Amino acid sequence: MSAIKVSLFSQVLQQIDRRIFNRIVKKHDSDKHSKGINTWTHFVAMLFMQLSKVDSLRDISNGLKSATGNLSHLGVEKAPSKSSVSYLNIHRKAIIFEDLYFALLDQLEPSLAKRRKYALKLRRKIFIMDSSLIPLCLSLFDWAKFRTKKGAVKLHAVLDYDTGLPSYAAITDGKKHDVNVAKHTVFPKDSVLVVDRAYVDYQWLYNLDSNGVFFVTRLKSNADIQIVQTFLTHEKQDHILSDQDIRLTGFYSSQNYPKRLRIVKIYDKENDQTLVLLTNNLSWTADTISQLYKARWDVEVFFKHLKQLFRIKTFVGTSENAVRIQMWCSMIAILLFSYLKSKAKYKWNLSNLVTFLRINLFVKISLWLWLDNPIIKKANPPPINTLF
Questions:
Q1: How far apart, in whole angstroms, are the C-alpha atoms of residue 265 and residue 149?
Q2: For residue 160, what are the β-bridge partners?
Q3: Residue 138, SS3?
Q4: Number of H helices and number of E strands within the chain?
Q5: At what angle do helices 39-52 and 82-91 cross, to 10 degrees?
Q6: Of the candidates 358, 352, 357, 337, the residue with the CA atom closest to the CA atom of residue 15
Q7: How far apart are the C-alpha atoms of 51 and 310, rounded to whole Å?
Q8: Is the pLDDT of residue 383 over 70?
Q9: Could you tell me if residue 189 is left (phi over 0), alpha (psi between -120 and 50 degrees) or otherwise beta?
Q10: Cβ atoms of 337 and 51 closer than 8 Å
């Protein structure tokens, strides 16, 4: 089948290995009691919502119905109705879409562009862990309890510095503390974990150290410490204010983390603030520790893109399962866009790529030709007639 005869949306879907998809469907037996709408059609409908940025079940159904002649190329026999999508969002398990995300990550990750500036120098795997709250209306989402009058779910993500995508993700209620999720996450030996102060649990940090994992975080302002040794800082590195080895002296903290630690005090010019970084690595340069913590901004950028470019602020279903399906489909969407961005010759900004593809979703043109040369210029444009 010639690529130019099918839409860009169809060609994006072709990047998904259907054998992988079918294995997940078989594993969960998700086409049983499907009401005539199989898992693939359901997935196409939810991915269409993310790519087209429609905000209602009616728009999903009518949007696919309006694509006359293109549905067969999407692997879909007929556009699902509003009620069918609503029913399936409640009853088809969200773990199917969760498994699909991680399966696609394994499939596409080797082709994603590497950004190993500091990872190559350190020869270690770098992970960045953080979470982001997704506010919900408690009167509609009564299962998502967060505060007395507010509802929320929380997306926890462990970003792989190589790819800029989550290698691990979990969706919990808004009350779940970050470190409680982190405690159930396993990191490979000799890897580096970068986290903020919300993850400072000395017992957990000591477990990381015992397992051969290095960490970089921020020291809590109320920490009781004893300075063991002070090191000279490089005179040309004016952002490095001090570099010291310490021990925790608090009653509980010293028991939970009895070994020596290191603090590096840096000045952040962009935000005009002083940060005290905490690490269990005693041999890296102070600048390396500073740059590692700076890499934590990547996870903030990821959450920003996810919230601004895809549908995870407004939901088309109010059940917990429906919310999870929508959020996992947004993760799949950003994974696919990251893959396309990394393969294209044109230097795309992710937000521009999402916007341009959204405009041309059902245009019939070669996907890779369009990605490499999105702005087609005519060799000899006709003269412009001007009236005076």
A1: 40
A2: 127, 165
A3: coil
A4: 15, 9
A5: 110
A6: 337
A7: 7
A8: no
A9: beta
A10: no
The confidence band for 86, taking pLDDT boundaries of 50, 70 and 90, is: very high
Residue 176: partners with Cβ closer than 8 Å, 6 or more residues away: 154, 156
Place of tokens 């020596």: 260
Nearest C-alpha neighbor of 188 from the set 169, 205, 217, 208: 208
Which residues, including other chains, have CB under 8 Å from residue 10's CB and lie 6 or more apart? Answer: 70, 73, 74
Q: What distance in Å separates the CA atoms of residue 190 and residue 124, rounded to the nearest whole number? A: 6
Report the run of H or E that residue 247 belongs to, with start and end: strand 240-248
Instruction: Show me where the domains of the chain are located.
Output: 3-100+318-372, 199-290
Task: Please check the confidence at residue 276 and state whether its pLDDT lies above 90.
Answer: yes
Q: Which residue has the higher pLDDT, 4 or 342?
A: 342
- What confidence score (pLDDT) does residue 3 get? 47
What does the angle CA 132 – CA 322 – CA 362 come to, to the nearest 5 degrees? 90
What's the token pair of residue 119?
């990872």
Handedness of CA 353, 354, 355, 357 (dihedral sign): positive
Higher pLDDT, 225 or 138: 225
pLDDT over 60 at 356, yes or no: yes
Residue 375 neighbours by CB distance under 10 Å: 7
- CA Rg value for the chain: 24
Rounded to 10 deg, the angle between the 95-108 and 18-28 helix axes is 150
Strand partners, 263: 244, 278
Whether the predicted pLDDT of 116 surpasses 60: no
Residue 53 vs residues 59, 65, 252, 312, 362: alpha-carbon distances, Å: 10, 16, 50, 10, 14
List, in sequence order, every residue forming a beta bridge with 38; answer none if it has no partner.
none
Residue type at 220 in one-letter notation: K
Q: What does the longest C-alpha to C-alpha distance in the chain come to?
A: 86
Give every CB contact of residue 132 below 8 A, 6+ residues apart in sequence: 154, 155, 157, 303, 306, 307
Nearest alpha carbon to residue 13 among 67, 83, 86, 81: 67
382 confidence band (pLDDT: 50, 70, 90)? low
